[in-house]
Every structure is written in structure tokens, then in C-alpha cells.
Specification:
Elements: E1 20-25, E2 28-33, H1 40-50, E3 57-58, E4 63-68, E5 74-77, H2 79-83, H3 98-110, E6 132-134, E7 142-143, H4 151-154, E8 162-171, E9 177-187, E10 191-202, E11 206-217, E12 222-233, H5 234-243, H6 248-254, H7 258-261, E13 267-276
Antiparallel strand pairs: 1-2, 2-4, 3-8, 4-5, 5-6, 7-13, 8-9, 9-10, 10-11, 11-12, 12-13
Family: Belongs to the TIP41 family.
Region (Disordered): 1-26
Protein name: TIP41-like protein
Length: 281
């Protein structure tokens, strides 16, 4: 079974096969694909399927996938599936700020075909995305089992055999902040870690970090997925950065970097699930 693929615009370049990297660390295969921002036709089709306007920068053909070769079990990360987890009702804590309405109106006017599908939705694109899993024979990630990601093992300075970073989407929220989802992968000889991170900063309102980590132990054929959502008010985050000793200019720079902000935010949601894919004796 080939790695999952997303539909491509017939005019898209370069060739997706040339933009795909594959690394096999038996018994798993890791695939990453990086292609240009979608063009107008595919964007309109995507907006119609999702019933929401699309972020300014949408990498709809990008992909990161982990596949267990003996069984075909797969977990993959892609933009359309991520955006499909955005709240489309306006009832899930949607950010009700004045310029959200103006932003929707401006997108309605400038995006062909979008005016027919605009409905209340979380315009900050705060996706609660844990990846798409293809189970095999009923076997897949399940809550429980007591498995946690072994952080100390990941701190070891083992040689990195494969690494990549893939952007799924990005929006500047009409110059009022940023919402960006990226996927990073790092593969060592005995284990690997994938991090899918949403970083959303709405200036003057809120800062969010939503992380999905996928850890794989190649020898045990064990997969652990951890989801952590963090959130705090914008002014609280600024205050905490100031209290850490940063000058105002440094605080402004830090607010652009999720790595400097994430650990300052309280955890508001956390979950763990796992699966052992080794053949049962």
C-alpha cells in the first residue's frame, strides 16, 4: 500500500514524487511531502468541502505519514483534515472580537465562491488535530495501557538519521496575530518523535499551543500519541515574559516563537493513547 496522497492541481509544480522524502526504519516507514501553496481552483474546492474560508497560506498537498510496514497501520498529518477539526458552529469558545466579523466580510468579498459557504466558525483556525489514523484489523491507538512518552530517552544525543519540518497552514489573522500549524519529525536508530503543533496568538486576547506528539519505539513496535492543549490570556503571557527578565523588544520577539511561549501556558487538556503493533505470539 503506497503512502497516502492528496489530490493535486493539474498545474501544480514541482512533481510531487520529487517533493516526497521517504525513510525506512524497519518496521516503520516515514514519509514527508512539501509542495507549494495551493492555487485558486483547489482553494475554492477545499473551502467548499470544509464550508469555511481558507487560511491565507494553505499547503494542501503537504503530508507527513508514519506507516507500520507489516500491518499497513498508518497515522498521517495533512492540512484539510486539520482544518476539518476547526469549530464550525461558533459555539465552542469562538473568539468574539470586533475584527473577527470584519475579517469574515473581507474574505467573503475577496474569495471567489466563498460567500456561499461562510458560516460562524473559529476564525483563529485553532484546530484540535491529532492526526488521521488508519487502523488495521481493529488494531489502533487506544486510551490506557499506562504508556507515556519516555522523555529522558529523547533527551539523549543519539545521531539523527532523518529529520524534516512541514508547514500545513498559516494565517496572520488579518494582521492581528498568527495561527500556524507545522509538523516536525526526528528519527533516531531506536526511536522517533513527531510533533504537530498549532501556535495561535491573537494579540490582546489569547495565546494557544496545541501539541500532538507521536513517539515510536522501533524495536517494540510501540506507538504512543500524546495530545496537550495549553492556553492563557495574551496579557498574562506578556507579563510572564517580562517577569523572566526580558526587555520589551525581546518580549515582542518571543511572542513570535512558540518554543519560548509554550511552557508558560497552563495545560487545559491532555490525553494519551498507544498501540503495540508487534505480531502477537
Amino acid at each position: 500500500m503506497d503512502p497516502p496522497t492528496a489530490p493535486l492541481d493539474s498545474t501544480s509544480t514541482p512533481n510531487p514524487a520529487l517533493s516526497t522524502r521517504t525513510h525506512t526504519q524497519s518496521p516503520f516507514q516515514i514519509t514527508t511531502r512539501k509542495l507549494p501553496i495551493l492555487k485558486a481552483g483547489p482553494i475554492d474546492a477545499l473551502a467548499a468541502r470544509l464550508s469555511i474560508p481558507i487560511p491565507e497560506m494553505i499547503f494542501g498537498d503537504n503530508l507527513v505519514a508514519i506507516r507500520h510496514l507489516p500491518t499497513g497501520w498508518t497515522i498521517q498529518f495533512e492540512a484539510e483534515a486539520a482544518l476539518d477539526t476547526v469549530d464550525k458552529t461558533g459555539e465552542g469558545g469562538m473568539l468574539r472580537v470586533a475584527y473577527a466579523r470584519e475579517w469574515s466580510r473581507s474574505r467573503e468579498k475577496t474569495s471567489a465562491g466563498i460567500s456561499e459557504v461562510v458560516r460562524p466558525f473559529d476564525w483563529s483556525y485553532s484546530a484540535a488535530y491529532k492526526g488521521g489514523e488508519s487502523k488495521v484489523g481493529g488494531r489502533g491507538l487506544e486510551v490506557g495501557g499506562g504508556e507515556e512518552i519516555p522523555v529522558e530517552l529523547l533527551k539523549r544525543r543519539d545521531p539523527i538519521l532523518f529529520a524534516d519540518e512541514v508547514v500545513l497552514y498559516e494565517s496572520e489573522l488579518d494582521d492581528n496575530g498568527i495561527s500556524v500549524m507545522t509538523v516536525k519529525v526526528r528519527v533516531m536508530a531506536q526511536r522517533m518523535l513527531l510533533l504537530c503543533r498549532l501556535y495561535m496568538r491573537l494579540d490582546g486576547v489569547v495565546v494557544r499551543v496545541r501539541d500532538t506528539r507521536v513517539y515510536v519505539d522501533f524495536e517494540k513496535e510501540l506507538v504512543i500519541r500524546e495530545y496537550t492543549a495549553r492556553e492563557d490570556g495574551f496579557e498574562n503571557v506578556k507579563r510572564n515574559l517580562h517577569m523572566s527578565g526580558m526587555m520589551p523588544d525581546a518580549v515582542t520577539i518571543a511572542l513570535r516563537d512558540s518554543n519560548q511561549v509554550a511552557n508558560l501556558l497552563p495545560v487545559v487538556e491532555h490525553s494519551l493513547d498507544s498501540v503495540c503493533l508487534a505480531e502477537k505470539s
